[in-house]
Amino acid sequence: xxxxxxxxxxxxxxxxxxxxxxxxxxxxxxxxxxxxxxxxxxxxxxxxxxxxxxxxxxxxxxxxxxxxxxxxxxxxxxxxxxxxxxxxxxxxxxxxxxxxxxxxxxxxxxxxxxxxxxxxxxxxxxxxxxxxxxxxxxxxxxxxxxxxxxxxxxxxxxxxxxxxxxxxxxxxxxxxxxxxxxxxxxxxxxxxxxxxxxxxxxxxxxxxxxxxxxx
Length: 215
Fold this sequence. Notes:
The protein is mostly helical and about 220 residues long. The protein is built from 10 helices and no strands.
């Protein structure tokens, strides 16, 4: 019995020690590394309304007005916030990572490997690193494709990417085939991804020029 008690004590101590070590590695150390890196709030992000958001208002005036009114910073904030929620709810992150990993030549397909400061904003925390590579990485999707491309892609993916196995998101559209609020929000969010980077113009130009994968 005493031997079993000793083994149990050792196992308990080891388990407690590993728990503490994991907390140190996954919480304390990341905090120490990132505590001095600027964190950008959604309110700050929404101050600069993207041209793509204005374009959505022009291309789908009735649908946009019904969903968000005018394309200003207030409606842009609402669309970005809802778009991220739709992205999560529809499990887009399962197939589309938002983290270019330093393995398997990912930098040749999706651009430079992701770095910590790239995720220091309200819409990127907690991070949506993803679980699989069924579709391409979307961390820097901004400016790569038009709004019409994304809307068509949600309606029928093979229409724009013949080899796509992504399902149709027909519930993003009304009875007349026009994009509803969820489609506008998700398009806004996807079109924003990567646009916040300080060096976005040079970086995104390189990413756009590099080979990409299926959407």
